[in-house]
Amino acid sequence: MTRDMTRSGEPLLRIDDVHVHYGRVIAVNGVDLTVSRGETLGLVGESGSGKSTLAMAILRLITPPGRIVSGRIHLNGVDILSTGGRQLRQLRWTDVSLIPQGSMNSLNPVMRIGDQIQDAIEAHDRRQTKDSLRQRVLSLLDMVRLPARVYGMYPHELSGGMKQRVCIAMAIALGPSLIIADEPTSALDVVVQKTVAETLLKVKEELNSSMILVGHDMALQAQLVDRIAVMYAGNIVEVAPVAELFSNPVHAYTRHLIASVPSITERKPLVVKEFQRPDLTTARPKPELREVSPGHLVALDDEHSDRRTSGEASEREEVIPRG
Ligand SMILES: Nc1ncnc2c1ncn2[C@@H]1O[C@H](COP(=O)(O)OP(=O)(O)OP(=O)(O)O)[C@@H](O)[C@H]1O
């Protein structure tokens, strides 16, 4: 992909061998990942696989008992893990912003929407006049497809989908180059989910930003992202362009995620039965990723790997021991 690289050849985000622990729990076990400029990357996996932890690590928002034990994260050339204080606060929102899980329930119930978005902007950019702030908020509401009257409304007057759009407006207020959206639509009904997700994608295109879309809804991801990274037990086990991942899934865990799509649309929790919950308190070797076709990387040295090439893999019988 030509848009993969900046002029200097560097991706927008580069994560190298990041480990995050919560006490004895190894939540992220040596992740390597890049996000290119303009790219939408899907980060998928079951609950507990470490997706949110990885997302929070990118913003240095891991709090005790959590700790980023080692690794490097570069965003826009800035070494995030050795940045501190004011620079780090500035970096959040202006370079990278997070739409956290359940964010629509964290809106202040006694404050009008317009004031909440204004406050979010002012916290990072105090140079604006009242008038220009108001104009900015109105244009943000318009970007997320909300009518201007929402400016004067309170959260309880809005539907779930509208509240989530407000959270998107806040997250994009300072035009970040990377938007991280953690399960941004999981609390919404299926139809609303799709329209909100489409708005998120449109906004991201308008801002020329990159996005990491964290989630477990493979069907939704298939429609929205350029590339998917599959996480299992704190590691990326497969990453590929979206069409390639769905047509040629190599890792057994990826295949099971794809096979469980119907149960996801029925809104049952995603549980890949064939894969037991690993004990995250035990040290595990980091699986090595190998390229099986251009841009398609798979952990080929763990017990669930299919060591053939992706083309052969699609012909292949089941590789997972059941029961
Ligand atoms: N604050 C915390 N304290 C202790 N353990 C934590 C904390 N946050 C996460 N963990 C543990 O780290 C592991 C990874 O959790 P994480 O929330 O990153 O996974 P996830 O894939 O995002 O799941 P979900 O989709 O449910 O959010 C889990 O075993 C979880 O119990």
Question: What is the CATH C-level name?
Answer: Alpha Beta
Mean of residue pLDDT?
86
Secondary-structure class: alpha/beta
**β content, as a range?**
15-25%
CATH topology: Rossmann fold
What is the count of β-strands?
Answer: 12
Could you name the CATH homologous superfamily?
P-loop containing nucleotide triphosphate hydrolases
End-to-end separation: 41 Å
Order of helices and strands: EEEHEEHEHHHEHEHEEHHHEEH
Shape: globular
- Structurally, how many domains make up the residues? 1
Question: Can you characterise this structure?
Answer:
This protein is of the alpha/beta class and 323 residues long. It has one domain (2-313): P-loop containing nucleotide triphosphate hydrolases (Rossmann fold). 32% of the residues lie in helices and 23% in strands. It is built from eleven helices and twelve strands. It has helices spanning 51-58, 85-94, 113-122, 130-143, 160-172, 190-207, 218-224, 242-247, 252-259, 261-265, 310-313; strands spanning 13-22, 25-35, 40-44, 66-75, 78-79, 96-99, 178-182, 210-215, 227-232, 235-241, 289-293, 296-299. The strands form two sheets. Strands 6-7-8-3-9-10-12-11 form an eight-stranded mixed β-sheet, with helices on both faces. A four-stranded antiparallel β-sheet has the order 2-1-4-5, covered by helices on one side. Helix 4 (130-143) packs across helix 5. Residues 285-323 have a biased composition (Basic and acidic residues). It is found in: Cell membrane. Residues 13-258 form the ABC transporter domain. Keywords: ATP-binding, Cell inner membrane, Cell membrane, Membrane, Nucleotide-binding, Translocase, Transport. Belongs to the ABC transporter superfamily.
